[in-house]
Amino acid sequence: MDYQQKLAEKLTILNERGNGVLIRMNYIKKICSDPKLRPGFLTEKAMEPAVKYINKKFPNIDFRGNIQNLTSIQRQKSEVLAATASYYDSFLDVIEFRDHVYELLNTIDACQCFFDIAFNFDFTKNYLDLITTYTSVIVMLSRIDDKKALVGMFNCAHEMTNGSSDPSYPRLGQMFLEYDHPWKKLTEEFGPHTKSVTAALLSLKTIYPRRNLPAEQWRSAQLLSLLSTPAAMLDPACCETMACEYLPLDVMERWIIIGFLLCHSSLNTNQASLELWKMALRSGLFLNYTRDEVLNIHKVTEDHFDGMKGYSKRIADIKECREHVLANCGAMHRERRHFLRVALKELYKVLEDEPGLLGPKALFVMMALSFSRDEVLWLVRHSENMPKMKTLDDYNDNQMAELLFHMEKLRGLMRKYNHVVQRYHVQYLAQYDALLLNDTIQNMYVCPEEESVLMSSFVSTLSALSIKQVDNKEEFDLRGIRMDWLRLQAYTSVNKAPLPLKDYPDLAKVMNMIQFHTRMVDSVEEMLYETSELSILCFYPRVFEKMFTQSSEEMTMKRYLMSFPFICSHFSQCGHPLCPEETEILEKRSLRLCVTFLEQIAKQTSSVVMEICAEQRNLNDQLLPKHCAESISAARYRKQKKPMPKKGEVQKEKPGAESLRKDRTVATNVDKMHMMLTELCSSYSLGSDFMVFEHVVVPAEFLLSQLEMRLTEIIIKMTNYNQTTQEITRPSDLLAGIRSYTSCLHSLASYISVDVTRLVKNVLLQQTQPLDSQGGPTVTHYYTTWYLEALLRQASSSLIVHCPTMQCFVSQSTENEQSFRAEEFSDVSELQSLAELIGPYGMKFLGENLMWHITSQVSELKKMVIENMDILVQMKNNFDKPEEMANLKKRLTGGENVLKRMTIIGVILSFRSMAMNCLKDILRKHCPFLMAPIECLRDFISPETDIKVTLSVFELASAAGIKCDIDPALVAAIGSMQTDNTPVEEEFKLSRLLLVYIAVSLPILALDPNSLYSREHGGHNNNIHCLAAAINQLAAAMFTAQNKNIEQQLKEFLLLASSTLLQLGQNVERMDVKNRESVYLLLHMIVEDSPFLSQDMLESCFPYVLLRNAYREVHKAFVITLA
């Protein structure tokens, strides 16, 4: 008869089902109480009359007489039916669960089952779990305010659709009414079960007090210490009640509190019951039903007993226990947490050093995790729900990070050395447990057939285990043994059982030990879940975040902060198949918390790293050449033995003075920052990655992301660009600062395993683009803007002169003091630094912006050519007729404007040429083996090569900073100006006439007093020497775009320019020949700069003697005669 009851199977299934129903009820409560998640049909204005009417009349709702109140449901009956169906079905699940629980509890009472946690642990635990789960479901159901509206609306819609109520509706309505005051009804229901429940609870009278000791007794007993008895270190940790040693404390308290609430009669009749109950009442103020739903222990118990006859003493006990909790509990648990922090750290250090001890001492690990979890859960539920009081500090813990960290470390150790634990326990089961069990069975004087079969199977299964299975990495599945042991407990715990378990304590002890050992073989992960999962923190985000904040403010806790995001990996384990809708909410919350914690840790770490880098940069900055003037001056004064000038200020310390220490114990600011960095980076040692639901989280990537963001911000800040005042940091200074930061960042690798090289490359590569990954301006953007808006704009108005001799731009001394000196931003070292900073990509962007300015000037030049087209055509045809040319010249307008615009183009191209040369130098230094083939490829190009191939090769060479005969960027820019409407021949005509325009306008330059050639600068004071570059490169680009012969057109230009300049020599008495020689040199510069013209061509149309005399004249002022 008892074998057919299947008590073990029913208890297992109903507990699992009950957990699902409980989670489902909690989810419905949360959904209905949250305005953002509340079902739409409960919040609609049109539904308000129906909802009010249903709540008022429930469950006897008149669907026909009051149709006016239910009109809104009538209109949307199908939608309402569909929307409320899942809620209705969930409430039906509660009825179904209740029916099965009633049936099973009655069966257990009829069988007069024996319960003792020390003997039939699984049977007793499942029985007590079922009672608390069922009670929690009913209480949770009573807390759903909208349950009547949900069920009533469903039934209304059902009747309106099908013409009749749902068959289950009457029972459901009756259940809602019965459980409006759940504890009263539940107490009535459990009256018949008092004997069984009380017996099960009283079996905790030895276990619970032993688990609920103060920290002083733990410390005196050296609990969890492997070092206290070194001789016994290798002995297996065993006891008679192994599973009870890591049974959660809050589970036992929930059993006791809820059990005696339901079956309270023994509190007045049994002293043991009273003592156990009072001990549980002194343990705290709150217990969890599920998630964040709590039972206010003293309030609910007092309200329940209030009004009952004979319970006045119990109410006094409740008040006394509550006062005890408020006075002592916070401090007691604080001390426990302090003890556990030290104990877990010691345990972890020993096991990490000797992982082989995980086999015999696995029970210690489970106990340590379970004890720690108990303290975390207690603090969480009390922190959230605690009333305001003076001793609130006892309910905050700024060192929680350390406890969580060591818990995670122990969990990680068990996972890492799972094979060690398996290997040990497989041998233990096969070579000791199987033999011991066999001996125990042999010593039994009676053994019925069913029990004999089960026990024989235990022995045979355990004996068959071998170490080879571990070596071959076979999957173990010993759940069958544990289920059969639960069945055996059920068979042997009923009244008048042929084999009463209470008469065979040795069998119970051996099987309880075997059960633990089998779990160490095939379900370590499940054991870790039972003893250390902290998914409750997902439902207390405010407390969780507060714990993190408090810990992060403590210097000594920074090395443990990574435990908080790692805890988020637990949250995926708390879902249930009966409530899949909750999973998405949990996933979002888990990821939000995880990302928040990781970002905060990364921000703290990156802040410290950047502060150290800033300090290092300041030290490196002191060593820059620009700061050595004072030292040189001081040395000079010492050498001349002159007294130092008194300025009334303290002499500056030399670089390196900060390293001289008189006392090593005195910590400098840098020392403190390095210490903090060490602490924060130690936190990352907890693990390289972890899973949060289906997401792989890599903490180091968050740090790299923050470092990338901070480094980008610092680089932009160091650039110091001010658009209003046109101020910017010199490229060489910025480069020195970046190098200081990057070298300091590379030292981070000695603290933590991160790819700093990848970080630096990512940041610096983004700076070579106009915008970074966040859409913000970069170094490339700022320097391009500055060189165009500040330097080249002033160079266009001759305030800044291009100096070929020194390969830079030089500021001219003017009355208005300039905000910067051009030579400090445009010499070779600065432009090389610029090329190093912005690279080929940045140079390409700079070039594109320069080309835009050139094309805008070319557009204006074309307009001027079109205005003077007829005159220019005549001048082209009559250039060898001086009288005709003189007349035409008088009619020509805008010559100065043409030369001015061409000079601007020349200045831009000269700057571009200098920048490209510096880029070439940098690339030769970084990748010489790449540059040589590119130069070889460029040299291979001949005039006969196809123009498309030529431009492709030149584009490659130009990107590397190598000078080409034809500028591909300029060709592309000129080509983009040509519209489809304008024929190529027309464009060609305009280009030729532009050269004519320039040639005939050259004599005008002699009128400008600034056209004087300066030998010091190697150019003219008004930048007209840049015309050489402008004419050559612009002509080459225009005629390439039009597919015409460049050399032929430049020869024509040279002939026309020579003719007009020679006419300057005839005006001997006029003032406009003052700078004639300087203008003559311009013709020589054009030929020298051109790859298409030669000196022979020049001499054929312009006498060399004039050039020689011109050079002699312009150099007269610089001739030094030696006496």
List descriptors.
two-stranded antiparallel ribbon; 8 strands; 2% strand; single chain; 1123 residues; mainly alpha
Commentary on this structure:
The longest helix is centred in the first third of the chain and has 42 residues, at 312-353. The protein is elongated, with a radius of gyration of 46 Å. Among the domains are: 1-180, no CATH class; 417-532; 539-551 and 558-627 and 669-768, no CATH class; 796-807 and 833-1117, no CATH class. The protein has a two-stranded antiparallel sheet. The model is unreliable at 1068-1072 (pLDDT under 50). It contains 48 helices and 8 strands. By secondary structure, it is mainly alpha-helical.
Can you summarize this structure?
The chain is mainly alpha-helical and 1123 residues long.
Protein topology:
Blueprint: H1 7-33, H2 40-43, H3 48-57, H4 71-75, H5 77-111, H6 121-142, H7 147-162, H8 169-178, H9 182-190, H10 194-202, H11 207-211, H12 215-220, H13 242-245, H14 249-262, H15 271-281, E1 286-290, E2 293-296, H16 297-305, H17 312-353, H18 362-385, H19 400-416, H20 418-442, H21 449-463, H22 467-471, H23 479-493, H24 505-522, H25 524-532, H26 541-552, H27 563-567, H28 581-622, H29 629-640, H30 669-683, E3 690-692, E4 695-697, H31 699-719, H32 731-746, H33 756-767, H34 779-796, E5 800-803, E6 808-811, H35 823-826, H36 828-867, H37 869-877, H38 882-891, H39 895-926, H40 928-940, H41 947-959, H42 968-977, H43 984-1001, E7 1013-1014, E8 1019-1020, H44 1027-1041, H45 1046-1062, H46 1076-1089, H47 1095-1101, H48 1104-1114
Antiparallel strand pairs: 1-2, 3-4, 5-6, 7-8
Biased composition (Basic and acidic residues): 646-659
Protein name: NCK associated protein 1 like
Pfam family, one: Nckap1
